[in-house]
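pipeline: protein-struct stage 2 | run 1193 | PqqD family peptide modification chaperone
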Amino acid sequence: MSDIGPDTPVRLRPGAVSWREVDGEVVLLDLTTSAYFGVNASGTLLWQMLDAGTTPADMTGALVAEFDVDRDRASTDVEAFLAEAQRLNLVEV
């Protein structure tokens, strides 16, 4: 995630995925590869934020507030989540 800093705006790449929330978790389809993915409750929060457009700093703050984790852990989780989404070409900076 070297090109995404804490205050870098990031969002879902338009037309990259189709997604739905099912029983509190996000299920998504990569429209390019036809691969299906599912994310847990914390991933669902992050995914919804990406859909609206956000920053890694705001995502970290949301995890801290919603799941009562320390900021360092939340930041590491956000970095990993965004790195994977970027690797899959699902987000744009």
